[in-house]
Amino acid sequence: MAEEPTTVTATGIARIAGVGRPAVSNWRRRHQDFPRPVAGTSASPAFDLREVERWLDRQGKLRPLAPLGRLTRCAETFGAAGRPAEALALAGLALLTAPAEAPTPDRLGDAVRAVVSPRHAGLLLTGLPPAWSAAQRELLEAARLVACEEDRVRVLEHLHAWYATARGTAGLTDVPTALAGLMLDLTGPADSVLDSACGTGTFLRPALEGSPPGRPPRILGQDRRPEYVRIALLRLLLLRSRAGAGAGAGAGAGAGADPEADGRLRLGVGGPFPEDAFAEETVDAVVGGPPHGLQDWTQDRFALDSRWLYGGPPPRSEPELAWAQQVLARLRPGGRAALLMPAAVAGRSTGRRIRGELVRRGVLRAVVGLPPTTAAGNSNGAHLWVLQRPEAAGVPDAAVLLVTAEAVRGDRHASPGDPFDVLRRRVRDLWAGHRTGHGTSGTEGVIARRVPRAELLDEDADLTPRRHVPGQGGAYALDAVLRMPAALEARLAALRVALPRPDRASRPEPEDVSTATLGELSRTGALTLHRHPARAAGQESPGTDRVEPALTGQDVAAGRPASGSLPVRPGAEPAARVQAHDILVPSLAGDLVAKVATEEQIGARLGPGVHAVRVDPDLLDPWFVAGAVTHPDNAARAARPSVTASGALRIDVKRLRLPLLPVDVQRRRGSVLRGLDRWGAELTRTAEAGQALARAFTAALIDGKLAAPDD
Length: 711
Prior knowledge:
One of its GO terms (molecular function) is methyltransferase activity. InterPro entries: DNA_methylase_A-5, SAM-dependent_MTases_sf, Type-I_RE_MTase_Subunit, WH-like_DNA-bd_sf. By secondary structure, the chain is α/β, with parallel strands linked by helices. About 40% of the residues lie in helices and about 15% in strands. The protein has a nine-stranded mixed sheet, sandwiched between helices. α11 links the parallel β4 (about 190-195) and β5 (about 220-225). Mean pLDDT is about 80; it is low at about 245-255, about 410-415, about 535-545 and about 640-645.
């Protein structure tokens, strides 16, 4: 019986050849010898990968790939078939065992049993076929070659990053590394850490990686989806093998591995309700987010469950509070939990009884309001709750720490690296002060406050930090207000120094310079155009997989991080995510706007009405293209008034026209345009600082903290 060929979609062919998808469509129309589809549908055909590679090679379009690139390509073929978890698991097994030659299923199973415990082997080897398909053999061979040359942990994390955006990852929580680290900071040093909905190890991996050398904490995790548990286990085993802390590659569990180390890593399939894999365990710390689609706890047999210690059984509309009570039952007295909660949980009326009980008994220690794009899956923002199980003789703290993240937004512009590192440092310092009983003062007073428990025990028991913390528009420390004019003067002086002062060109540009539209350039492969894919009628899924940050037209115009959100379907196009050097163009705006994506915008989804122009850097300079697109002539050619009352312009991106200049000329002009863009962004921030000064002076003058001239 002939084996099914390894297939690849048109998007995959474009990645192999390093071109845009429209170029592949052109090849199919213009070349009669282009391979015919062997699977898929007329709308999404699939081609034999081997035939495609041979055709590309004959045409001189096949780019040589490094081993890691080859492995990624193999994984993408599984992703196109809706089997990304299988690809990641098989590659992980090859990386874990590092075989000298391509193994058969039996030999791979023996190799896995030689390096992990029987319990873990049972999880990892479930569903292993009796014989490999052609695609599986190719993937294992690619993974084996990469394991010989690259850091295996880094390779698996590279594949995991691909998997997190692939099809079929419903309910998978994704958060910045710094935020996961902050959650572990808030739980404090722990000898045992549990995540009762661990997914692929989002929170457990940092717990193991950041542990002191020599003796990592006991890591316990469970999830309802076996494929997630398998991936999480592979990530943790590889990380542990690199650290030399237990059963990894080369340290056989079945042939002399350290049983104590194996006992300190336990993952299983299960959930808080109804089958808790760790029902008899108590731990020092719990981290994580609520399970996706939790509802089994509403069954009658849980009505008198011993875990309902705080306010009784939660209403059906409060699954997160049911999960929080389950978490508290797993903690030892004095143990802490850092939980990523949807922001709505803090204020829903149906949960006020349980929230009030958590506050009254001193269980709730802190609530941190996070930026709205913190975690995929929380479209309306997220909060970080810190809970602590009371000790028998302990006296509960008289106050709860409430923190908002608005002030961190300003730090994002000025601080290099991950903006969540700024958040982590600020909240960690505030938590340290809160534990010692110190209040907040100075600039901290606008983002945090120790709120007396009695103040939170009103009829609403609303824990939303914004309701209790003054924020930027509220009270200011007088010393900070008095320093604001000097800071604004320094900004204005820096703007004057950096003011662009261009010279007249010695030779004016000829008037007959050739031009081309973006639509024409996209057909040549010089650039590709991307936008949010419209959902076809009748294809609404009953439960979207997750909600991700999305850029709006206003975000692009203001140069700010994504403020919108977007439900992401299982087959979402990866190209609809913003990449470095993308030129972003709102299709509806007051003026024609085109800006190169900022560091904060990279990775966000393209929201409705936002186009991304992705150029070939060998042919086009992104900064020059962004500047050329906004030329006044383009407003006349490609823009037309919309039917909205605002009179905004509707932009036809394909009709925007560029002058065709040598790329070295583009780069020289693009460098100047980039500096001009930075100056404009600083001008905007200076204007915002001036407005903040005016608001602060107004509030301080009304409060009598500042003197009027005749006072």
